[in-house]
Amino acid sequence: MNTDMKSNCCLACKGRLKETPLLTLEGMPASAQDIPDSNQVKQDQGITLNLHQCPHCGLVQFDCQPVEYYRDVIRSGGFTTTMVELRRRQYQHFIEACRLEGKKIIEAGCGRGEFLSVLREFPVQAFGIEHREDLVQLAKDGGLTVWRQFTETEDTVLESPDKKAGPPYHGFLSFNFLEHQPNPDKMLRCIWNNLTEDGVGLVTVPSLEYILEHNGYYELIRDHLAYYTFETLRSLMEHNGFQVVEEEMVNRDTLSVIVRKTAMPDNAVWEHPEEIDITGLLASRQSIDRQVNQLVNRLHEEGKTLAVWGASHQGFTLAATTGLGRKARYIMDSAPFKQGRFAPASHILIVDPDHFLKEPVDAILIVAPGYTDEIAGIIREKYEKGPGGEKTRIFTLRSSDIEEIT
What we know:
This protein has 406 residues and is α/β, with parallel strands linked by helices. Helices cover 27% and strands 22% of the residues. The protein contains 11 helices and 17 strands. The longest helix has 23 residues. It starts with 22 loop residues before the first strand and ends with a strand. The mean pLDDT is 92.
């Protein structure tokens, strides 16, 4: 897909975007999941991304084409203790509050069933659709009722191949998937058409409020076309037949809403939005660049080595836009499909965390928001000593500051 092609229309309301973007980011990773291998890394290069705010509905978004795999759900942190416990808590409340015991719930974009497998612990009928065929097979191998399908059009019927489940469903789930979609309205209207009249849903997306509050420019990545606030997410839902009945921030950086199906609105008017202030993002980019470069230069002068933990989109963006790409030995990550490949744009080798035992480093910078404490515990337990026998120093990026964890 040509990444240079631009869209001048809003993803949500289809209004025309302004010519001048809020923010232009150069040298950014072309994707978070198309991670180059040793044969592809020479051709890989950074791209320029333009961030806009729609003047009609307020949605903040990139004007580029989506990544080719936007229909697929690829998760690397789905089985972490942090995420599994979060899903259990959410499911418990969702099922009890919406009286879904014994009812049919479908996850739209279920990956290999990481979260659907947790749902099986509850007294509901759990189903899932996923576009990527090998992920569907992995989910089936795990005993889940999953089939290959995508919410392509409004009239797509989400019906299990064995016909036993069949629409309509009583509830739906969508976890950090809506922000990837070039046509979120089509996805929501498809789901609306496959729900009972009193159907409900649990939806999460990354939070723009979090990004702005913490000035986290490193949260921006091409895979995420849209950056929702509670206000713009609520507006999108209402314009596509859903009322938001509950909303909360979860895992520090994620918007979570429970919605209920309502009548589809006719020619509803989008509210005039507040303009967002991105001066903090600009200042943060300069500040983080300075702090990262100071850290890597200081370690280098002391003859110390550094690795990064987290082949996440945050880690990729930081590595591509700061001195990490030149000084970090490797990136540690527990996702097997990323290991042996290279971070997009910066080309740092991604390795299994146990690679530390073969090639220890003096310090590790954790770039995995939401999992910092869990990872720090693993480092203390398994990777405590650096190459000189000294205690491995642990750093992390909290908001817009690099901090050392003692």
